[in-house]
Amino acid sequence: MAQCVQSVQEFVQDSFVPMVAVLCSEEAERVTRKNNLNFAELLRPFCRLTSEGHIRDPNNQVQVVKNLRICVNNVVTSPHTALSPAQRRVLNEVVLSCQPQEGVATNVITAGDYDLNVSDHSLKASAPWYSAWKETLSEVSASKHYTATTPWFEAYRENFLQSMPASEHEFLNHYLACLLVVSSTETAPVEQFLKLSQEQHRIQHSGDYTNPKWFIPNTLKYYVLLHDMSEGGEQRADSVYEDMKQRYGHQGCYLLKMNSRTLSAEEDEQIPDPWSQYLHRNNLQNQEALDDAAVSSAAEENNVGAAEGDGHPSTDKDGASDSLDSHPLQLDTASGPGSLHTLSAANPEPRKGARDPESLAAGAGSHGACLALNDHDHIRQFIQEFTFRGLLPHIEKNIRQLNDQLVSRKGLSRSLFTATKKWFGGGKVPEKGVSEPKSTCGLLYPPEAPELQIRKMADLCFLVQHYELAYSCYHTAKKDFLSDQAMLYAAGALEMAAVSAFLQAGAPRPYPAHYMDTAIQTYRDVCKNMVLAERCALLSAEILKSQVKYSDAATLLIKMTSEDSDLRSALLLEQAAHCFINMRNPMVRKFAFHMILAGHRFSKAGQRRHALRCYCQAMQVYKDRGWSLAEDHINFTIGRQSFTLSQPESAVTAFRQILTNDSRQTATQQGAFLREYLYVYKSVVEGNEDDLPQLPLPCIHSSATRVYFGHERRFAEGEKQAATHVSLDQEYDQDLALMWCHLEEQLVAAANRGVVPAAFQPTQCCLNSQTDNLRFPLAVAEEPIIVELSFRNPLKVPLALSNLSLLWRFTAEGATPSEEKTEEESAGEAVTNEETLPEGTTQRDDVVTTEIIQEFLMGPEETKLARLRLLPHRTGQLNIVGVVYNLAAASSAEPAPSSEGQPALEPMVVRGRQDLKIQGPRLNQTKEEKMLVQHGQDRRLEPIITPPMPLMEVFFLQFPTALLCGEIRKAYVEFCNVSGVALRGLRVASTHPDFFTFGSQTATPLTPVSPTSAENCSAYKTTATARRPGSVASETLVSAEDFSQPAGAMAIPIEGSALQPGESTQLPLWLRGPDQEGVHEIHFLFYYESTEKGLKISHRVLRHTVFICASRSLSVQASACRSSVPPHHGVDDKGSGGTLVFVDVENINTSEPAVREFHIIQVSSSSRHWRLHKCINPANDKDCKLTSRERAKLCFRATRCKPHQAASTAVEKYTFADLNLGNERILSASTPCGDFFFRGCRPPAAPRVEPTSSRTPAGSRSQTADLGSIVRKCNELDLNIIVIWKAYVVEDNKQLILEGQLHVALQTIGKEASSLTPKEEAQEMVLLKFKSELPAPVAPPSAELSQLIKTNLHYPETYTHTFVQESLCVVPVTLTLSNCSSAPVDVLIDLRHKSSSPESVELHSSFTWVGQTQYKLQLAARELLCVTLRACFLQAGVYNLNTPRVFAKPAAQGAACETSQQAASPALIIITGA
Predict the structure, then answer these.
(1) Is 1427 exposed, middle or buried (CB count within 10 Å of its CB: 0-12, 13-18, 19+)?
(2) How far apart are CA 732 and CA 766, in angstroms?
(3) Looking at residue 805, what is its pLDDT?
C-alpha cells in the first residue's frame, strides 16, 4: 500500500473523534462572515489539542488523552442515511482535484521517500527471474509515473470517513456537545442563549428530526459569547460574560474575542491562512442541501463524466454497468473507426462545477482577513478550554454514570473490569421496529437497552483513548449481539473491538484480524451495507500494512472491489497493487496487473488522469517482456487517455508502439489501431505544419537499402543484345565482386603502364550492406541515382502510400562565374527539399529532380521494394536524408461502418516522413573496438556529385549462346557513346581471354579469298591450294608481339582511338567455343576514360556476362617419337634426326543430333624450333571425314626449323606450317586462327630451375640444375598442333557449315598430349611431417636420361656363309651414335653379355661380338659418330644384333648419373649356309 503521511495509529485515532455541534445566532454568524467563514469553519484548523488531557476511569485511575482532535460541525437536520449522489460526486471531485505533481522529486522513490526493499537479502537471489525483475523494479522506481505516496487516496479516505452517516448501531459519530454561540452585540444575549438552548432541546427530544443524532440525552451545552473587537463595546462584552459565568458556571461558558485586525490598517502584513487546506473538506451535509435539486436527474457515480468518457453505457440506479459482459481488459473498439472523433468534441477533463467545494469556499476572497495572530491564539485557547473544562469532564461523568447504571441494573460488581457476560443476560426480547432498516436484519434495540448502554460506554472510552476498557466493553457487547443474532450491531462491535485491540499501548494481545474479516463479511453480505464495509476495510488494510502483512491487506482490498462504485474499486485496486510491490519479495507482475485493473476502473469513473498514470506505471513492467497483447492493450489505452487529456504527442507515441511492434492482434483489431493512430496523428499535424513528424509505418529495413548510380540497363533492341552491366535485379555476390575488382585492376594497370595507382578504388555502381561504404560514393551529374528501399508492412491490414519521394539535402561546390547559382548555393549553404511540405509541389528541380511515386500499395504483412530516383544537375555534396509520403489505411472490401443518416467516413490520410539512418559495420580491429560495440560510417546515401562523364553502351550482334568445343564464330560488337563527353582508351578484360579476339594489331597481308569461303561466310582467311601427294607444308614466320596482349587487358582498336558524343562504331569479334563441355559463365569488363584530365572519376567500366553452352566436338590425341630412319637418309636434315608426330582424331559429339559429320581439312603447327614437314598418312588428297564415334589416325614428319629462322633473338618468331588435307589452305598465322593459338596455347616460359632445400650443398645444386637442363633440352619438343575442322549441321532443313580449331601442345618426346583438359583427380592424403629431414639428392629420372643417345645398327639383312669351309662367320656391323642433347656426353659401349636369364644365354650361345668389347667415347653436342663392330656366328639362323649396351652421362656429371640408353627396335640378321 502506498505510504501515508501520518502513522496508522494517528489515522485510526483521527477516524473516530468526539463530535461537537454548533448553533449560532444570526448576529454571531454575521461576525464570523466578515472572515468569509462560518463559525464551524473558523474553528476547524485549531481543533487538534497541542497539550495532554486527563480523565479518571471508573476505577479512579488517571487516563492520559494525547493529541486529541475534536470535530465541530453545524447542525443539519436533513435526513442523512447512505452516501447520497451529491456526496459521491464530491468524493469524485476530491480525487480528481488531487493529482501527482509533475517533476517533484520528493514523491519519487529514487529520492528516498519510498523503499522498494529490492536487495539481495529480500529477494531470492538464486531464482532465475531475479536479475530481470530487479532491473524492472529499478525501472519502476525511477519512473516519473511512480509515486511513493497517493494523496488522492488519503483525501478520498478522509472525506469518506467524515461523510459517514450517523447510524443507530453505534454512537461514535453522534454529537456529544453543542456550542451555543451568541454575539456580544445582541440586545439581550442571555435571551438569545435561552432560545438557542431551547432550539437544541427541541431538535434532540421532540422526535421530529432523525438527524443529527445525539450521543446521550443530557447533551453538554457550552455557551460562547462572540465579541467583535472591531465594533468596540468591550466593557459590555465583559459584563455580559460575568453574568454568564454566574448563570452557567465558569466551566460552561467562554468569551471569544476576535476581528481585532482592520482591513485598512496593516494591509502589507502577511497573515497565514490555515483554513485553505480544510475548506475542500467542507461538510458534505451542507453540500447535499445545495445539490438536491440538481442531483435528482443526474447520473450516478459510475456515469459521472459520461459525456467525456469512453462511451460506456450508462448505469442503472445501483451503479451496475452492463460492462460486466466483457472482460475488463478487453480493448474498447466497439465504437467503430471514428471512436476518437467523439472524444475530441468533449472537454478533456470534467470541469469544476459551481458546487465544487473550493469554488464554494473561495467565492468571496481570502479567509480570516479580520483576524490577527492573537485572534488565532484566542481561538486555539478557546478550543483547549472547552475540551479540558467542558468536554472531557462531561465524558468522564457519563462513563461513570453508565458504569453505575449497568452495574446497579444487574446487581453485580461496580467495576466493569470484573464483569462477566451474565451482567446483561436475562429474559429480554428485542423490540421489532415498524419501519426498520434492512441493515438491522430484523432487530432494533430500544435506546435504554443494556446492550446499547454498554456499546455507548465502549464508544465513550474509545473516544478518550481508554482502549483497554473499550475493548472489554466491545468484546462483551459483541457476544450479546451475536447471541441475539443482531448482526449489524455485532459487526460494529467486532470492528471496534479489533481496532481497540490494535490501539492498546504495549499490545497486550495480538490484532484480531479475523474480527475485521467477520465484520466486513457481515456488513457486505448480510447487512448489504457497502459504506460500513468499506470503512472497515480501509481501517483493517492500514493496520495490516503496519504489521507488514501486505499479502493479507491486498487480498482484503481486492475483495472490496465491486461494480457498485468504480471510484472505490479503482482506489482499492491501486492500493492493492502497492501492497504487492511492498512485499518482502516484491510481486512486480501482480503490481502491474492490478494497476491495469485500477486504471480501467479509474477510466470508468471518469478519472482520466489517474487512469493514464496507472497505465503508464504498469507499462514500466510489461514493456519488452514479450507480452505483446498486454503491451498493445496498455498502449492503446494510454493513447486514448492522452488524446482526451489534450496530450496528442503522448497519444501518437503510444499508438506508434502498437503499430511498430510485431503484433499478434487480429486484422480487425489492427485496422482499428491504425485508424485511431491516423486520426490522432492528423490532429497533431494540423497544429504544427512546419515540420513533418516521423511515421511508424511501414517499417523500413534500412540496412537493406541499395543505391544504384547511373541509368538502368537497356534491354535488347531487335537483333542487338545490350551489355548486362549492373542491375538492381541482380543479387550481390562477394566472389563475383572480387572477380570484377581483379579484372578492373588489370585494366587500370594496363592503362597506367603496368602499375595500379595507390589511390585506386574499384568501381561500385550498386551499393548495399555488403559493399565497402566507408568512402563517399561518386555520382555523375545528369545521371540518375536510384535508391531501393525495403518497406515491410507489419500489420495484417493493407496500407496505401501515395506521393512517395526522397528527401535530400544538397551542398553545392564553390560557385563559378560561368554558372548561374542561387544565393543559397553561392553562399555554400545546404539546399533541401524538406521544406517542400505541401503535396504535389516540386521545387528545387533546378538542383535535383525528385521522382514521385503516385501510388504504392502494400498488402498485409508484405515486404515490398520501392525504387526512388533523383537526378542531380549540379556538382556538390548530396545527402539523402529520408523519405516522405502520404499514409492511409488501404480500403478493404468491407465498407466502413457509418451511423444512420451520415455518409461513410473518408479514408484518413496523413503526410509524414521517415529518416534513413544506416548503421555501419561493427568495428573489430583494435582491442578497444573489440571490447566496445562501435560502428563505422556508412556513406552510401551521401554521394559526391561530379561533373559529367562519358557514358558508353555496348551492343552485341549475332552473338551465339551455344557453340561446339573449339568452334570459331564471327560476331559483331557495337560501341555507342550516349553522353555529351568524348571517350577514349577503350579496353576490355575477361575471365576467359581465350574465348574471343578482335584480331591482331598489325594488318596481315591480304590473301585471295576462295569462293567457298565467301559462300559459307567462313571466319578464316583461306586461299585455294590444291594438295599434291608428297607436298611439304606451307610455312609462315610470325612475330609473337603481333598477337600478345599485356596482362590480359586487350585494347579495342577503334578508329581515331576516341568516340565523340553520340558516335558509335562496330567491330568484328571472333569467338571460339571453350575446350571443355558444359555451361560457361564468361565475364567481360569494358574500360574507358574521359578525354578530359583531372576528374575525380578517372575511368568508367561496363560489365557484361554471357553464358555459353559448349558441346563436345572432336578429341585430338597427339604424340611424338624419334624416327628410326637413319640420319643420312633424312630429307634436308643437315645432320639432325627427324621426329614422327601421330595425331589421333575422334568424333566424340553425341549430344547434338544435328551434327552429321566432321571433316578435318587442315593440320597446322606453330613453334619456335619445330615444324610439321610432310604428311605421311593419309597419303591421298582427300580430307578425313568422321561420323559419330569414328576415329582417324594421322601421321606427320616434323623437323627442326632452319637455323637462320630462329637465329634472331631480339624478336621471338614463330613458324606456322600448314598441311591442308583438302583444296583450301587456311592461313593459320592470321586472324582469327593465330589469335586463338596465342590465347589458347601460350608457349611455355623459359626453363625454370626448381628450388631445392637450403641444406643441399651449393655444388650439388648447380650440378643438378645443369643436369635437369640437359635432360629437358634433350627431350624438349615444343611443337603445337592446330587441327582445323568443319562440321556439317542440319537445322530447320537447312545445311550449315560450322568450323573450328583444336590445339594440342606437344612438349616432350614420347609423352602423349590431348586437346581435352584432363580431369583433376583427388589428391591422396599425405601424412604431415613435423620434423624436417635432410632431402635426398635430387637425381633426374632414368627414363629421361636414357634418351640422351640415339642408336642405329647398319648391317646386311641377309648374309651367306659356307660353314663347311670356315666354321666362323664374321659380319661387319656399323653402330651409329647420335647425341640428342645440346651438351657433350660421355658414352660407354659394352658388348659383353651380362644377362642372367637362361633364355638369353641360349639365344646368344651361337653369336658373339669379337674384337674390342668396350668403347669409351665422348660426343659433342648434336654430334653423329659411327663405330664399326664385328659379329661372329657359328651356324646359320636368324639373330638379333641389337644386344650392345650403351651407357651415357653428361660430360660434366659424375658416374652416378650414368644411365643405360633406350635400345632401338630389334635388328634381325639372317645367316644362311651356302
Answers:
(1) middle
(2) 9
(3) 93
Whether the Cβ atoms of residue 1068 and residue 1049 lie closer than 8 Å to each other: no
| Rg of the Cα atoms in the chain | 59
| 1036 Cβ contact partners less than 8 Å away, ≥ 6 residues apart | 1215, 1216, 1217, 1218, 1227, 1228, 1229
Q: Is the backbone of residue 434 left (phi > 0), alpha (psi -120 to 50) or beta?
A: alpha
Residue-wise pLDDT for 901-914, tens only, equals 444 456 788 888 89
CA 1408 to chain centre: 97
Long-range Cβ contact pairs of 64-70 (< 8 A, separation 24 or more): 64/465, 65/392, 65/464, 65/465, 66/465, 67/10, 67/13, 68/17, 68/18, 68/387, 68/464, 68/465, 69/13, 69/14, 69/17, 70/17, 70/18, 70/19, 70/20, 70/383, 70/387, 70/391
Confidence of residue 1241 (pLDDT cuts 50, 70, 90): low
Q: What are phi and psi of 1157, to 5 degrees?
A: -155, 155
State the Cα–Cα distance between residues 395 and 464, nearest whole angstrom: 8
Distance of alpha carbon 130 from alpha carbon 124, whole angstroms = 7
Sorted by sequence, the CB contacts under 8 Å of residue 930 that are 6+ apart come out as: 924
What is the rounded distance in angstroms from the CA atom of residue 979 to the CA atom of residue 781?
11
**Residue 1164: CB partners within 8 Å, gap ≥ 6?**
1033, 1172, 1216, 1217, 1218, 1219, 1226, 1228, 1233, 1281, 1282, 1284
Distance CA 778, CA 794 (A): 35
Q: Which cell goes with 1033? A: 607444308
Strands annotated E in 250-365 = 253-258
pLDDT of 346-383, one tens digit each? 333 433 333 343 333 334 457 888 888 888 999 999 99
Q: If phi over 0 gives left and psi between -120 and 50 gives alpha, with beta otherwise, what is residue 999? A: left
Average pLDDT on 2-23 reads: 83
CA angle 801, 802, 808 (to 5 degrees): 100
Q: How far apart are CA 1294 and CA 1291, in angstroms?
A: 5
State pTM to two decimals: 0.69
Q: Could you tell me if 625 and 662 are in contact, meaning their C-beta atoms sit under 8 angstroms apart?
A: no
Mean pLDDT of the residues in the chain: 78
| CA–CA gap between residue 1271 and residue 1381 (Å, rounded) | 7
The label of the residue with cell 436475562 reads: 426
d(CA 1074, CA 963): 8
Q: Look at residue 673 and give its three-state secondary structure.
A: helix
Collapsed DSSP state (helix, strand, coil) of residue 1392? coil
Closest CA to 1441 of 1461, 1397, 1471, 1398: 1471
Distances (CA, A) of 714 to 725, 872, 949, 954, 1067: 9, 21, 19, 10, 20
> Residue 80 — pLDDT band, cuts 50, 70, 90?
low
Angle at 1069 between CA 1067 and CA 1070, to 5 degrees: 150
- pLDDT value of position 1212: 73
Contact between 450 and 424 under an 8 Å Cβ cutoff? The reply is yes
Are 462 and 409 within 8 A, CB to CB? no
Cβ(1391)–Cβ(1409) below 8 Å: yes
Provide DSSP, 726-790. --TTSPP-HHHHHHHHHHHHHHHHHHTTT---TT-----SEE-TTS--SSPPEEETTS-EEEEEE
1313-1314 and 71-74 strand pairing: unpaired
Confidence check: pLDDT of 897 > 70: no
Q: pLDDT (tens digit, 9 = 90+) per residue, 480-510?
A: 999 989 999 999 999 999 999 999 877 667 8
Between β-strands 1139-1147 and 1034-1039, what pairing exists: parallel, antiparallel or unpaired? unpaired
Q: What percent of the chain has pLDDT over 90?
A: 26
pLDDT of residue 102: 59
Q: How far apart are CA 104 and CA 112, in angstroms?
A: 13
Distance CA 745, CA 762 (A): 8
pLDDT score of 1213: 82
